[in-house]
Amino acid sequence: MNAMLAREARITIIDFETTGVVRPLPSEPWQIGMVLMENGKVIPNCFFTSLVRVGTRPFNPHAPGKHNELRAEIEQAPSLAALWPALRAWLIERPLAAHNIGTEKKIVRQWAPFHRFGPWIDTLKLVRQAYPQFASHALEDILAELKLLTQVEAMCPGLEAHDALFDAFGSGVLLEYLLQLPGWGDVTIDDLVQAHPAKFHQGVAERRRNAERRAL
User: Fold this and answer.
1) Which of 55-59, 101-105, 188-192 has the lowest mean pLDDT?
2) pLDDT at position 189
3) What pLDDT is stored for residue 202 in this prediction?
4) What is the DSSP letter of 70?
5) How far apart are CA 42 and CA 40, in angstroms?
6) Residue 28, Cβ neighbours under 10 Å: how many?
7) Integer Cα distance of 106 and 117 in angstroms
8) What pLDDT digit, counting tens, does each position of 15-57 carry?
9) pTM higher than 0.70, yes or no?
10) 191 CA to centre of own chain
11) Contact 13/200 with Cβ under 8 angstroms?
12) Rounded Cα–Cα distance for residues 31 and 10 (Å)
């Protein structure tokens, strides 16, 4: 259990770009991006990004990102194992967040199976609960809908969606935005991790009512 307020926690926001599946080869990460959130705010100058070696394997033609332009650099990039000394402090003993955590969670667990990671916060799940009426909850679409793209672009100039660092900043800015919504200021890490639509909204509504009563 983690009863720490989310706005007081140090959270690593992580994103991987992957090759996609090309049978019989599995999907593998070719880029990682991470940013730090502290006290409810993304820290613009505290980030990590690197290409990740995947060798000469084919990429799924539908895999997003600029991997075609970077193939030579990707083939010479460090492996995830070689990056571990730099990544350890980012990933161990703190909450981790991503937009649609399935990919990130799977990669991290496969890469370092003897370590315990998390708890994991899924910004996709949270934004679906906060804005169920939106037609798309894809990260790029949500950032545009909430008018957050300019803020993200200022943090990582020259980058764009489906760059791992850009998407990590985007997920972080989205989480920062959500934590500033009415009723979200006092949510805990556990609230975010365990959030389900009915339960989460019931808790937010109750906190909002309590705040309104205190203001009377």
Assistant:
1) 55-59
2) 96
3) 65
4) G
5) 7
6) 20
7) 11
8) 999 999 999 999 999 999 999 999 999 999 999 999 999 988 8
9) yes
10) 17
11) no
12) 23
What's residue 68's pLDDT? 80
pLDDT of residue 201: 57
* CATH architecture label of 6-215: 2-Layer Sandwich (3.30)
d(CA 98, CA 119) in angstroms, rounded, equals 11
Asked if the peptide bond before residue 113 counts as cis, ω within 30 degrees of 0, the response is no
Strands (E), the chain: 10-18, 29-38, 41-51, 96-98, 120-122
| 8 Å CB contact between 162 and 18 | no
Structural domain boundaries of the chain? Answer: 6-215
Measured CA distances, 208 to 127, 203, 214 (Å): 18, 9, 10
Give the tokens for residue 45. Answer: 């100058």
> Which ranges in the chain belong to alpha helices (H)?
71-76, 80-91, 102-111, 123-130, 139-145, 149-155, 164-179, 189-193, 197-215
**How remote is the C-alpha of 3 from its chain's centroid?**
21
Q: Is 58 exposed, middle or buried (0-12, 13-18, 19+ CB in 10 A)?
A: exposed
Residue with tokens 């505290």: 46
Q: Which residue has the tokens 């545009």?
A: 144
**Cα–Cα–Cα angle for 154, 108, 85, nearest 5°?**
80
- DSSP 8-state class, residue 181: S
Burial class (CB in 10 A: 0-12, 13-18, 19+), 186: middle
